[in-house]
Records
---
Amino acid sequence: MYPYLRFGPFLLQLPLLALLAGVWIGSSLAEKEAARLKLPSGVVSNLIFVGIIAGIVGARLAYAARYLQVYLENPLSLFSLNLNTLAGLDGLLIGVVVATLYGWRKKLPLRPTLDALAPGLAAFMVALGISHFLSGDAFGAPADLPWSIYLWSEYRHPSQVYETLLALGIFFAIYKKPLGQSGTGINFWLFVALSSAARIILEAFRGDSVTWPGGFRVAQVVSLIVLLGSMYMMRVWAQSAETGGVRTATSLESIHESE
Amino acid sequence: MVVVLALGTVWTIFSRLPASATSNGVPPASPRQGFAAPDFTLDLLGGGEVTLSDLRGKPVVVNLWASWCLPCRAEMPAIERVYRDYQDLGLVVLGVNTTNQDSEADAAAFVRQYGLTFPIPLDRDGSVSVRYALRGLPTTFFIDREGIIRSVVVGGPMSEAVIRSKVEDLLKETP
């Protein structure tokens, strides 16, 4: 684990750098896929940017809301660069909602846009695995195996390596588009389904699982529900694509041309 | 679809954590959130000594600093203010001076300059820095009443709001 690199008085956070690289590569891939799907790549790029900024601002505001009195007394602390004062899940939700509203306002067609985002999201998940490896987060359960790594006072499953390898597999699957041409939204749901399945497998080797009574790991149960939902959506959207009910970017373009 | 879900369900049930792993499990000592804070005994600036495990039952903030470190200088007044506001509620602050890369005279001058009233343990041989995997100054550990690290802030300066929010989290937990 190499969480920090020192440059004189500055501490460079390598996990954060891996995430930034993931955002950069992910957005580039999404823009490329958007252009291929004849979507306005600039608008898709803005959608990602707006979502990220809204997510970060939302995460800080959500954290501040929990300690309202403290932040009312020290309002400038809202601008702190400290990552410890971000409410991650709230930020994610706010980012997704704002990006959705932006896409709706810019009249981006839903299914092709989701498909355009899929390869970028898959690339970001690889970066997330690398970031976990660098920081030592998402660590594995204690295990005495030839490939165990010594981390946090014990030999453990290298769960971050498993995570990165699974994410790489998903990335290549999404990139090769095994279920046919994009634009129907099915590649996006395939990404969600594969990521959920990977989490169900991976969580069994994690040493930091949050559990419910009975020892059930929360992440596995939630991933199982998401897997069910994503497979259902794949089926429904595949059926509507077959019956011609989908307005893809290509079909929208042909509509405009005929007008 | 049914097969995938059935496999997922079976795997989820099969990989449940056993009851022994979910109750009374004391995490090992490691300088990381969710783990027990590594114990230490250090001499204090001005005399006496402190042992971290003796403070069990009280929320503890361990801040590692050096007098030459600019972010340490910037955040120390805020730490002192928070300590004064919450010490009656049981908060303990240990300002561990990394004496192996500082000097006791400079540390003492620093304490006088900022009017610090919390204990200043002296890490003369750097053993606490090693045990806490110190990678940059300042580094702050927020430790709950059970001796478990709840949050780690590497680098600084921390704003007063950051310190207060973390301390309030520690104090919210029942004694």
Note: The mean pLDDT of chain B is 91.
---
Amino acid sequence: MNMKIYVLGGAQTDFERNWSKEGKGVIALLKEVIDDGLRNIGITYDDIIELNKQGKVACFIGNFIAEYYVNQGHLGALLTEVNPAFYGVPSARYEAACASGSVALDAAITKIRADDYELVLVIGWELMKTVDSKSCGDFLGRAAYYEDEAAGIDFPFPKLFGKLADETIKKYHLDEKRYLDNLAKISVANYANGKRNPNAQTKKWFMNEAQATTRGTATNSLIGGKLGISDCSQVTDGAAFVALASEKFVREHFASSNFPIVKGWGHRVAPMKFDKKIEESAGSEYILPWTRQTVLDAYKRAEMTVDDIDFFETHDCFTSSEYAAISAFGITEPGHEGEAIDSGRIAFSGDKPINPSGGLIGCGHPVGASGVRMFLDLYKQVSGNAAGYQLKKADNGMMLNIGGSATTNYVFIVGKNEEWK
Amino acid sequence: MEMKTVTVIGANGTMGCNVAGIFASFGDAKVYMVCRDLEAARKAQIRATMSVKAESIAKNLIPMTYDDLELCISSSDLIFESVFEDINIKMGIYAKIEKYLQPHTIIGTGTSGISINQLSTCFCEKARQNFMGIHMYNPPYSMTLCEVTPSQYTDSVLLSEVKSYLRDVLHRNVVEVKDAPAFMGNRIGFQFINEAMQYAERYIDNGGIDYIDAILGSFTGRSMAPLATSDFVGLDIHKAIVDNVYENTKDYAHETFVMPEFALKLISENKLGRKSGCGLYQAVLHSDGTKTINVYDIASEKYRPKEKYVFPFAKHIIKELKVGNYVNAFESLVNSHSLEAIICIQFLIKYVLYGIVTTKSIGENIHSADDVMATGFNWVPPLAVIDAFGGVDIFKKIVIEKMPEDFLSKIDVDEILRDVPKSKYDFRPFFKAK
């Protein structure tokens, strides 16, 4: 990527919070995350007003389906209710199911690269605890091909990712017990990582291998095929904010340009329906070839390989998706993902840690926020601001954010500037 | 420090059972659940697994009875005593277990207020060094506070190791508290709750109990209003806590620990709260399956439907909180001069001041009161209230403006608020828009 896109910082809300229980709505959510994010990057609402007079600032909102959860659309314009500083600021909502945050980031990055704006604010959010879990599952079904894959089905997504587990076992002739034990280890690692993250949804929750491998019980019921509750990310409320800027903006506003930069990206769309994905992947080594291709695109654009990446944030909406991501990233060959799990390579202390934040299972998954949250965590690690979950080596990080059943695939690489090193 | 085996004595009680669940899950310890009979122990085993939402820990939970004490105690790394809150009963248990203790066995008591120094004297010199208070809050799965209190004899290295274990392995928010009546959380919390109860009596003609709860509701920084909390905890427990503080301390808030007459009467009638069907409140189930809440009317001594009070100041605060306008919400509280708004802000002020005074006297540091109130009560912590009002300087002015002379004459506001830092906690999640 030729033009440098700087990541200035940002904020996320505490994903443990239930905003409905607090009696608060989307405006309160947005106010908090934007207030905190602006404070983090040292920009005020007055600065926004000034930048807007010069047409230098814009906002990009990632959200999947607020129309269902909170009866609200027109989410770009909604920022004007957060603060009058947003009057006149170009702002729009971007949607790609659970990858909505990433499509907003992509649009924001593109607008800087095109030299349209100098500062872009990206806000991903979802309030999901406004409804009961069954309705929530049904709403999320709209990220699949609803008519065929979700209508009339309780919790359609766990079932789709349960099928991914079945197909993975079949494709690579895996020992079922070993595979399911590997998935349990993924779950346990994400819960354990979440314990270090003060914004994690599960920071007080208990999980261990005995619990994660004991599927089909009252406290770990089967929810999609062979997958139990312990294999799933949970319904979450939350928002995440990231600010990106052009080189010109950084030079004019900051004493140093030691900010992480966007080094690579990838965006591919796989067949909408899960069965077609599997049908299409028959000739590929990879169970999710378009996910793999998205990763390859990002490596190519960044002129990097897996050897250059110090850590990963992945879309573990289910343990089966994190399992598939291991080979998609290139950490192992396809079919050998279990080796990276068993050897501890992807553990917090491993050489290729995945989800130091806790990921979607440990940190939480407010769907429209997740892409921005992952990107923020890349920023935190690379800039040394991850506090209790800071990795020792974090010069370059990669994130994978997926929408639907790995339908929309987004990858970003964020890393240190060469000059910074 | 490793705790391979733990014995919980009194594991059929709510706390004993839930604490057993914490040791067996996060600690992955084998836990002997000592109960009065095996059936009670088996039931407690199931409750303990459900308290941490993990049936897989059942294998770590071993139902036992007092007949098995020798086996349990002699093979345990830690004994957690959680029997009835009565010094004689506890001493009786200590006498029974002492002979089975190994030199390394740690003994923790879950007492919520009995003096640790006094209890420690039940043990021989060696065992005394291994004895301390380990006070968790209910339910410990979501309330992570653990007040640790050494006696004058507790080995300091051991104390430090136990604190690390509780913090790093059991994921507790550990606060070391001096051996003072009710320790810290209950002292600060029940000062507020008991004074609210006194105000219910004072404002008997305005509605009493539900009137005060409506003034100090969730929008003031708590999940549950104070008198509803007392009803939930049980008036008998409430009485034991405030009596203990009243009898054994003497600070400026001394008189606020006197339980009002009407509550004593309810206790004498066994109307203890939710656990006995009625107390300050009473849930009424109707034939159509609906439920309504009655409240005890202090004046008529009868239950009546709970009133839906609409105070303009509260309505305005809730409206502002709903959209995240915290500054406006607190400004409107400061600028409102209705009787209810004044009661509300005075309670918040008194809570902050008492929290700071208490943490300075029995806490580990200035943040200890914040830790105990946030993670033991889920109340907005005292220092975070100061932040919510705009910082120490603004808060000090509000104290002088809002508090009556007779209160101010009892304390030194400048001294209390000197060098008070920002809270470690974000106040925003605590103030509910309802």
Note: The interface with chain A takes residues 25-26, 28, 49-50, 52-57, 59, 141-142, 144, 171, 218, 318, 321-325, 426, 428-429, 432-434 of chain B (CB under 8 Å).
